Amino acid sequence: MEVDNHTLLEIKDLKVNFPSLSGEILAVRGVNLKLNRGDSIALVGESGSGKSVTSRSILGLIESPPAKIQGKILYNNKNITHLKVDERAKLGIFLGMQLPIEIEGVTDADFLRTACSIKDGEKFSLMPFIKKIDNVINKLNMDKNMIHRGINQGFSGGERKKNEILQMYMLKPNTVLLDEIDSGLDVDSLKVVGENVMDYYNDNKPGMLVITHYQRLLDYIIPTHVHIMKSGKIVKSGGASLVKLIEEVGYEKITDESSACIVSEK
After folding, report:
1. Which of 84, 146, 211, 223 has the fewest CB within 10 Å, making it most exposed?
2. What pTM was estimated for this model as a whole?
3. What total number of domains does the chain contain?
């Protein structure tokens, strides 16, 4: 598949502060990041480093106020910093959530049919939709009856994460953000989720940003670039080999040895 490697998403000097009784909590302290079509970027770091706040800010899920957000988020070179969540999603941005919520009274099947019909407009056809959703459910080893329940209702942690990947496949976004999609997964589910995400990437070449603090996910989702976050900043960047270095020496040693150092590596 020939890919147009133009810039899909660009974050410029993103800062996110949250009010607290003792002042302000500086969750993100000036993040700059560029995601091209065809990139598979891993944003890694210890818990509390600002990774999830960054991803949620991209989709507009951080409310301002009470949070104070500074900087710019550009999508296809257009400023989307002030767009609402649904407006950003319609542009083709998808976020696989760390903690997918449960929605009673709306089934997965109804939700996905409605979302896909809005996205595809007059091109939407029910039979291809049914065929595709059945195919993806089989790929993910999901129980076919689950899509007829309320969204995530009674789902285990692993089932909720598989459901996020099902939504990704059906909506076919060109920009994929995955926020700790591996949390709560057992070994078998991690393999299924990881391999299916990589299959989607190989088939569609979206821009993909994968957030995790466990390197095991990156055994399946192979990054083209790796950025390490610490204390709300990207402090080290490199290629896929940086994952192996993290496994060998840990985050603390890497970030302490070269705080705010950017390593250029392909």
Report:
1. 84
2. 0.90
3. 1
